[in-house]
């Protein structure tokens, strides 16, 4: 038997959520005015119907613009990111790169400006 706080108890979904939350906190410390107005979400898989203006939809994440009282949202799709990563460390960097790319896209900046360690 093992306790709920032990690493072995964590599910892959819980690990993904923890990694995402850590990256959001880190980016918020560096860029509070850019990160605080955003909402972040995780879904298992992307919808099967991309919007008409998406020629090549990114299946790992999506950016939803603000509108009608709803803030801008960045949604990461857990299963595509997990299926591409070979291990926890690679998943950690995939989550980071996806977040940084979407934040840079939103604000019209280069990803390297948001996070100098961005690698894609």
UniProtKB/TrEMBL annotation:
Lineage: Bacteria, Bacillati, Actinomycetota, Actinomycetes, Bifidobacteriales
Entries under Pfam families matching the protein: Zincin_1
Organism listed in the record: Bifidobacterium panos
InterPro entries, per database record: Zincin_1, Zincin_1_sf
Domain of life: Bacteria
Residues of the signal peptide: none
Name of this chain's protein: Peptidase
